[in-house]
Amino acid sequence: MEILRRLKSRILESRVRRSLLRQLGLFSLCLLVAVSCGTPKTAAPSSPAANNGRVTMGTTLKAETVDPADAYELFSGILLSNLGDRLYTYKTGTTELEPQLASALPEISANGLTYKIPLRSGVTFHDGSPFNAEAMAFSIQRFMQNGGRPAFLLSDKIAQVTATGDAELTITLKAPFAAFPALLAFSGVTPVPPKAYEIGAGKFKPKAFIGTGPYKLANFGTDSIRLDAYEGYWGEKPANKGMDIQLVTSPANLYNSFRTGGLDIAYQTLDPDQIRTLEQGANQGGWQVIQAGTNTVNYMVLNAKSEPLNNVKVRQAIAALIDRNLLNQRVFQGQAEPLYSLLPTTFPLYKPVFKDNYGDGQYDKAQQLLTEAGFSPAKPLAFELWYSSSSTTRGLVASTLKAAIDEKLPGLVNLTLNSVESGTLFDNLDKGTYQATLLDWYPDYYDAETFIDPFLSCDKGSVEQGCESGQSQAGGSFYYSDRANTLLKKQRSETDSKVRDADFIQLQDLLGEDVPYIPIWQNRDYVFAQGTVQGVAIQPSQQFLFGQIKK
């Protein structure tokens, strides 16, 4: 199923991203032993690299490949968004779709299955070959057929793609899918020239890229990546001559390199204490703090088939036990955002149903619900909470929750914490092994569907038996709701955006009533830039556009 495939495909990246936060639990020690934690007490920033028109950026993120048919890491997507173009993108500073390589929004048939897309003329690839409908059709077919990690995103939905003219692409879907234009803005759906790439299982080019974007790939190394501005770009030319990206081994090295002026930009991932120090020292140090919300949601899965979590009042009681503000203060040092729906707060449709229904740390409400469910100090609620052993952050969240529950409801709730290797966790998630699990989710495209459908939909099941086959079974909640399935099916083919929005409002309400998942926090994104640098911004769609940056 989609949700399990997406979770499993990101195990490696999750390990990388989460391992970078392992110093979180050592925050107090870091303050005392600042040098060993990479936080020198005084360091007058030296001058950034000579202003040769290029921008130097450091990051601890990794890119395994820049082949669009196989790229499925966060940083690979950022690179592809700058090296290539897609049929559609987002207007700067907004989440409004606009044509990029397409010349207009698609013409959609009455049955919602056929998309006719007119294409921009006069565009060339970096090797000088022309971009046209045949190249776009080839690239989509290659994306689906080569068997890369994100292949299912299109292969599950597209029945046929053909060039019906030199500048017209026709795509036929297997079933109506209202979010399809947003999916065509996914970073991997970027065209490549047919003469330079092949269709065939496993035929990837991980270290090379030829596309139509504002930058050309000059070097893809293990410790650095170099992008050069493409002089023949059809659109607005980059404001700089290129990007020199240093792949830094640790948050400490990234922090020190930026503090001493060796980098123009520091982007992901710094430890919370380092972020706080850079924020506090911005005026004196002369650097900028750019903060943005992200689309990454962190949540608890509740297995609705397992006793006693098969009782909705128990699930509601657990929701009332969660104190997001306490977690944000003690675990994240104020650098996260409390989340009350599976939709991120960046969505206009976001409705804080868990805040409205359960609040934060409402222990009296939790006790009342548990009493109604038949629990008491003589018969306490006992359940297990699981998380990835590679995630120090989730371990701290779990232990903080347990400490608060033990203090506020002693003897009424017995919460047991367990960690497991991430691969094992995802292998067993759809088997019903875990009662409750802490996980995160970030989307492939910007649409409410990708935050709701993978969690609430079920292909086969019943209210009594739960989900036997489908997304919620794959995600570990085993949630089944006829109403949810009806609303999800309806929104897929809904052409009226206002009606579709109303469907997602109802789905959030249903989530708050049935509680198969509990949204907990949303990450914040931090970028630090030297004072001489301009144009650094994370877009609401989470795109990081290098072409706007200059110094």
Main beta-sheet strand count, sense and barrel state: 11 strands, mixed
Overall form? globular
Topology-level CATH name of one domain: Dipeptide-binding Protein, domain 3
Q: Overall mean pLDDT score? A: 91
Taken as a percent bin, the fraction of beta residues is 15-25%
Round the Cα radius of gyration to an integer and report it. 24 Å
CATH superfamily of one domain: Dipeptide-binding Protein, Domain 3
- Low-pLDDT segments, ≥5 res: 11-47
Q: How does this structure look, described?
A:
- A hairpin with a 3-residue loop joins β8 and β9 (224-229).
- The strands form 4 sheets. Strands 1, 8, 9, 10, 11, 12, 13, 14, 15, 16 and 19 form an 11-stranded mixed sheet that branches. A 4-stranded antiparallel sheet has the order 4-5-7-6, with helices on one face. The protein has a two-stranded antiparallel sheet with strand order 2-3.
- Mean pLDDT is 91; it is low at 11-47.
- The longest helix is centred in the C-terminal third of the chain and has 18 residues, at 497-514.
- It has helices at 2-9, 11-19, 27-32, 74-83, 133-145, 152-155, 180-183, 251-259, 272-280, 282-285, 312-321, 324-330, 353-358, 363-372, 392-408, 422-429, 449-456, 471-474, 482-493, 497-514, and strands at 54-59, 88-90, 97-99, 107-108, 114-118, 158-165, 168-173, 215-220, 224-229, 242-247, 265-267, 287-302, 336-338, 381-388, 413-420, 436-441, 460-462, 466-469, 517-530.
- The chain contains 20 helices and 19 strands.
- α11 (312-321) packs antiparallel against α14, α17 runs antiparallel to α19 and α19 runs antiparallel to α20 (497-514).
- Among the domains are: 74-205, Dipeptide-binding Protein, domain 1, CATH 3.90.76; 295-524, Dipeptide-binding Protein, domain 3.
- With 551 residues, the protein is an alpha+beta fold.
